[in-house]
Amino acid sequence: MWLNTHSLISCCFAILFCMEELVASQNVFRLKDYSASGDYSRKGKVKRALHRRSYCGLRGCCPGRDDGCTVPYFARNATCYCDSFCSSDPVGSIDCCPDFWTVCHQQSPQPPTPENIRTPPSLQVGCFTDEQHHGEGAIFKDNCNSCKCVNSHWKCSSEICLVRPSLIKQINDGNYGWKAHNYSQFWGMNLKEGYNSRLGTFPPPAALLDMKPVTENIIAEDDFPEFFVAWHEWPGWIHDPLDQRNCAASWAFSTASVAADRIAIHSKGRFTDNLSPQHLISCDTRNQYGCKGGSITGAWSYLKKYGLVSHACYPLFWNNLHQTSCEMSSVFDAEGKRQAIQPCPNRWEPSNHIYQCGLPYRISSQDADIMKEIKENGPVQAVMQVYDDFFLYKSGIYKHIWSLEGKTQNRHQKKPHSIKIVGWGTLRDAEGQRQKFWIAANSWGNSWGENGYFRILRGQNECDIEKTVIASKCYL
User: Fold this and answer.
1) How open is the CA angle 61-62-67, to the nearest 5 degrees?
2) What is the pTM assigned to this prediction?
3) How much is the pLDDT for 81?
4) Residue 62, domain extent
């Protein structure tokens, strides 16, 4: 009798245990339903059921480290884990669920200790570049664009850079007849800054464009030599390019250089001084803006009326980059020529001799007329249009490339620039075709292009190179 009673009691306890397990299992799903519906009337009972019963037994065990393998631990108002990463901690680690060791490893838990607690990974505030961390508000410059770390994200400008490695690669990989280069002096400048600081010649005024050009079709183009350059014809009398740096005054540099060459040629080498563009920049201020731009007609007008001293007397930027106050003045002498009444700004130069030229005249756009003028009287001045790829020119016969991929709205933007044409030539290209070119001097220093010079396609008015060509008679 006692044995039957004992068996009956054991069966009752077993049935109660199974019923509790079933209720706890159902409550896990009910908790989700209550959370979604907003009905929390029975949430406390569910919490207690979960607290009393299994965690990992219901959730299941996860291999490795899985920070999503969690179960709500209402007794501690926290989350506990059921991943195998818990096994890297001593038995009883506090961030593992109470039944983790018994369910997942069949071991008895031990009381947790502070050193067993897993520290959650902290969220690092800031931004990263090449796996390097930068704090909030950090700023770094990438070529011509700058980026700032704002709310853990980079906020960057999107300017078109003057030097674009992708454009250089496209040019050099293609068969365009010329090569490009990454110039350090242009790195960090955007296209607008390049146009505003490296050019500086105003568009030719209507008076110049309406001027009747000098046309002499006496000699055909074929009667000229295939190759001619002024420094071979007049060695020691032709002046190499200077560097205008970030002073937008090509109007002054090209005028002074053409005038200096012609004075040396017309004097048969008696006067070979290079003339001072700084004299024009600082003193020719009537409707001229120094390093912010000027007109070539205004420059020639000043040269006729007041003249210029030598580059040695009035060197470039002797005071500062955008020095504007004029440090030279002159008066007419008895013969009607200008004489300086101030010493040279460069106190080491004794000669303050002033050189003058006449007003400019325009040469026709015909190749033969331009070639004749150069061969007989020396280099001429030309106004050309500059596109973005011209800044990158290193060698070869330049022509603007219209067909490059990756076009932008500013890809074919252009601005006027004045240069000095010193000669011409002819070469055969890779396909055996005859390529005609002009040889011209820029004013970006001898590290740019072919020692400061460049060749450009001739006979097709490339970049308007043959549209506005002028010269002047210089007297002593």
Assistant:
1) 120
2) 0.72
3) 84
4) 40-111
In angstroms, the CA 312 to CA 466 distance is: 32
| Burial tier of 314 (Cβ tally within 10 Å: 0-12, 13-18, 19+) | buried
Provide the residue type at 121 as one letter: P
149 plus 175 within the same structural domain: no
How many whole angstroms separate alpha carbon 167 and alpha carbon 407? 10
Would you state the structure tokens that stand for residue 109, as one six-digit string? Answer: 């838990």
100 lies in the same domain as 234: no
Residue 14 in 3-state DSSP? helix
CA distances from 103 to 29, 66, 98, 113 (A): 20, 17, 9, 21
Count the residues in the chain. Answer: 476
How far does Cα 371 stand from its chain's mean position? 38
Q: Do 363 and 470 meet the contact criterion of CB atoms below 8 Å apart?
A: yes
Same domain, 171 and 141: no
Find the helix or strand (DSSP H, E) in which 112 lies.
none
104/461 Cα distance (integer angstroms):
84
Structure tokens at 185: 């002096």
Residue 346 backbone dihedrals phi, psi, to 5 degrees: -85, 100
Q: How far apart are CA 351 and CA 353, in angstroms?
A: 6
Using alpha carbons only, give the angle 90, 91, 94 rounded to the nearest 5 degrees. Answer: 85
Across 291-333, the runs of DSSP E, i.e. the strands, are 330-332
What is the number of domains present in the chain? 3
Helix residue ranges, H only, 122-190: 165-173
Q: Quick one: DSSP state of residue 384? A: E
Q: Do 85 and 138 lie in a common domain?
A: no
**Same-domain pairing of 57 and 206:** no
Where a domain ends, among 121, 156, 191?
156
User: Catalytic amino acids?
Assistant: 417, 442
Instruction: Specify the pLDDT at position 154.
Output: 86
Instruction: Provide CB contacts within 8 A for 77, sequence distance 6+.
Output: none
| Domain co-membership, 81 together with 186 | no
Could you read off the pLDDT of 133-178 as tens digits, one per residue? 888 888 888 899 999 999 888 898 988 999 999 999 999 999 999 9
Residue type, 179: K
* Cβ neighbours of 107 (radius 10 Å): 12
Whether 64 and 201 map to the same domain: the answer is no
Give per-residue pLDDT as tens, 54-74.
Answer: 788 888 888 888 888 888 876
Shared domain for 379 and 260, answered yes or no, is yes
